[in-house]
Design a protein that fits this description.
It is a single chain. The protein is mainly α. It has one domain. Helices cover about 60% and strands about 0% of the residues. It has eleven helices and no strands. Helix 6 packs across helix 7, helix 8 packs antiparallel against helix 9 and helix 9 packs antiparallel against helix 10. The protein is globular and about 50 Å long. Pfam families: Coq4 (PF05019).
């Protein structure tokens, strides 16, 4: 009689299968994204990411305090002067019919990193000038790889899009690689965005926010 019991997947096998699943899935399939998050959270790479983030004072404080942004009134922010970060963020969210994500309290540094990246994702879109289309997403993914380093999740997410171009849409490769290069260069040049106190910057002109963080937009 054959032994039908299967050995548990190694994390490498789980990671590979989750990358294949998200490559085959439709863009924006959050169930596949959540699976990739779980598969990519191995202790070694997580520790390396935490060690890297802790080199920045404000990132280290954020990891210690683990404070979320909480609920944000987009309509109130939209009343701010039209050159401010708050206005730009609210306008971006309202135009694209998006809602600010409110996360649950994190009990570990790894959970906080996931939560913080989720709740600030669209703020990073705005400050980096990354559009909401696939080119903009790839640009921001490459920016995140440059900023967080050694993050298996962001590396895998970027790899997924390159795989999709390779298999399903090779004509998109040039644009994808341009977006990747742009995001990588911006991310390496910028100050760490993880843990930035965005709530205190809503009324600051967006140009000043970018200048304070050494974010230089690159026109392709």
């Amino acid at each position: 009689m054959l032994n039908t019991l299967q050995k548990p997947e190694t994390w490498q096998q789980s990671m590979l299968s989750s990358v294949i699943a998200i490559t085959e899935a439709a863009d924006g399939d959050f169930s596949k994204i959540d699976r990739l998050v779980a598969a990519s959270r191995d202790p070694h790479s997580t520790d390396l990411t935490i060690e890297h983030l802790a080199r920045s004072p404000h990132s280290r404080i954020a990891l210690t305090n683990r404070r979320s942004l909480g609920s944000i009134d987009l309509n109130a922010l939209h009343q701010l002067p039209s050159d401010t970060l708050g206005y730009y963020y609210a306008d971006y969210m309202l135009r694209h019919q998006l809602q600010h994500l409110v996360t649950s309290p994190a009990t570990t540094e790894a959970e906080f990193i996931d939560n913080h990246m989720r709740e600030t994702h669209d703020i990073w879109h705005v400050v980096t000038g990354s559009s909401i289309d696939m080119h903009g997403e790839i640009q921001l993914q490459a920016f995140c790889v440059a900023q967080l380093q050694l993050s298996r999740f962001w590396m895998a997410l970027m790899t997924k899009n390159l795989l999709k171009a390779s298999i399903y849409n090779i004509e998109a490769a040039d644009g994808y690689l341009t977006a990747l290069t742009t995001g990588w260069m911006m991310g390496k040049a910028a100050q760490p965005l993880f843990g930035v106190d965005w709530l205190s910057m809503w009324e600051m002109p967006l140009d000043r926010v970018r200048a304070s963080l050494d974010i230089k937009l690159i026109n392709n």
